[in-house]
Amino acid sequence: MLAEIEDTYAEAFDGLFCRIMITAKDETRLKRAAYGSAALPMGVVGRGEGGVEKWLTSTETPDRRLGAIVQFWTGVSKSRPFENAVKKFIRETSYRIRQEILVEPTTCVFNAFDSVSKFDVMDSVGHCGDGYEWEEEYLGRQVINVPIMMPGFRIERFLGYGVGVSGGNIWLMCRDEDSALRAGDKALEAINMAEGVITPFDLCAAGSKPETNYPEIGPTSNQWYCPSLRDRIPDSKVPIGVDSIPEIVINGVTLDAVKEAMWAGIDAVKDMEGVIRISAGNYGGQLGVHKIFLRDLG
What we know:
Elements: E1 4-5, E2 9-24, H1 27-38, E3 49-56, E4 66-75, H2 82-101, E5 108-111, E6 118-120, E7 134-138, E8 141-147, E9 152-156, E10 158-174, H3 177-191, E11 197-198, E12 247-252, H4 255-269, E13 275-279, E14 290-293
Parallel strand pairs: 1-13, 5-9
Antiparallel strand pairs: 2-4, 2-5, 2-10, 2-14, 3-4, 6-10, 7-8, 8-9, 10-12, 10-13, 11-12
Helix pairs in contact: 1-2, 3-4
């Protein structure tokens, strides 16, 4: 049975992003660095978020080691000067590189985004060498060598950044938890084949909303779409027969990349058993600058 695709849209936002390549001596170290640096997505409460875009073989990296492409993101607000957004983006990105990649043995970071705009990582990452760091040309790239105890960390000095689109999303309204997990995993597999996108929350169990009764917490439950509240609140929007609604959030280097990934996820699951309806999260068009209508995709 073909799932109904709702006549609605995902509301997406502009965001600052960079795209880096991490390499490491073995798969264990690489995955720890990639997953660790991309963990704890917090863009909705004013911090940064990240995700693994794809994995690379040793034939696809400059130093002939296993690699991963990772994206880091922060939001762009109309109420704040763009220069302040860039400063915040650099700070948040540097936290992730310092605390989760530099400390993982054998790692190296290369720029993976060909952009006119670049930021210098000497002050925010290079000086982890406490003044003993040095520069050199390595594999045709200008890198900083940070002396550490195992025994060094290399990072390309200038990393490209730009403005992309964050917050594209699909909601899978499913019969039960098992069908939601099956459909969610299949949608993620299809989405991750698209070029230039990440899913910072992977398969997300908790869709949020902009308003909240507890602002000190940040985003709280979107009660209208919580199946457990269908019979507890008078204005529930959970359809009869739907008991699980996973969300997949998508960030991409362009609007077209996000649209392609959204359709890939929808197309992969629209005829799966247990998928009743496919929808998306939006805020009535009040927050995001991009409206991505589901029925216009594909």
